[in-house]
Amino acid sequence: MNIHIKRLLRPTFWKIVAAIILTLGLYSIYLRFTGGLAAVTNLNDHFPWGLWIGFDILCGVGMAAGGFTLCAIVYIFNIKKFKPIIRPTILTAFLGYLLVILALLIDLGRPWAIWHAIIMWNPRSVMFEVAWCVMLYTTVLFLEFSPVVLEKFRAEKLLKIIRGITIPLVAIGILLSTLHQSSLGALYLIVPTKMHPLWYSINLPWFFYLSAIGVGCAMIIFESYLSSKAFKKNLEFELVSDVGKWIVVVMSTYLTWRFMDLILNDKLSLLFVDSIETYLFWLEIVLGAIIPVILLAIPKIRLNRAGLFVSACFVIGGFLLNRLNVSVTSLQGFSHVSYFPSIYEIIVTLFLVTLGVIIFNLAVQNLPVYEKTEEQILVEFEIITDDDLKVQEAK
User: Fold this and answer.
1) Number of Cα atoms under 13 Å in the Cβ half of residue 26
2) For the domain that residue 327 is a member of, what is the CATH number?
3) What is the model's pTM?
4) Residue 33: CA atoms inside 13 Å, Cβ hemisphere, count?
């Protein structure tokens, strides 16, 4: 234990960077709650939603979509070979939703009223539906991840109960995710005259849902690759390379639908208008869909660890740009407001990301997040040695 504590407290470059970000983030949050939103953001009555909604909420929820996607594959479609990577994926999703809730508390004008959605019902409101789905799905993710904690403390009775309701939990989680991933896009259907036509579409809920599945798959690859580097865990490369195939299918469908939507609504000419919106639209499409689909369709690249990781990064980058384009770029021109996030908004966003990385790191080091391979079990029971295991991994 002393060795573990010493290792945790040993200063490194990234630990110092993380400490600085956390300190500045806590100070920014303090200013926000003592001085209000106006004291720390560049938002106003004409442009009330900025980086904290576009990145912290829309991107955070979407990038956590790997949880329900992989759960559906393993438990509903019964493709059990992906089970070894399901725990870290659920952990990533669970942390994503917890940080989204924290971001909401920071962004809401009256955060102390966040509980009102529980008792003050407005079933016709899309935001009401999103609020309930996020609350319920976060609970589902907690229950889905709880076996990892229960195994740590050997709570066999509770573990048996949770495992017995796994399939219903997964089914409920898929339903809730489908509802609120698409409903986040439906939020913007109420501003048809204020949103740039390159992004406004009655199909926006479906675009949000499809792109969330695509980025969820990319996050599985991203997290698996970085975890293998940071924690010396098995990458399960054959599994994550298969995930790359799904990205090709999902993002190809998304790309085709986006352009068909433009054609059917006589918006194709907007793709050649000399404007910042046009350039950012093309950057989003090329970066997040065209390039990764081409790369992952080539077996030589998809079956290469670095090639697979870079392709996933393209999908994630394009997804982030899409959500920021929808929430910021598409609305600026029509609101006649030039918005750029303040330094405090940026610091709080970095604070949330850093906090998520730290908690993930602590969870992996202290909980059985990664299921043991057959070889590791043999080492534990002293059937083979650590040296034998290192030789097998090297091969």
Assistant:
1) 6
2) 1.20.1630.10
3) 0.87
4) 12
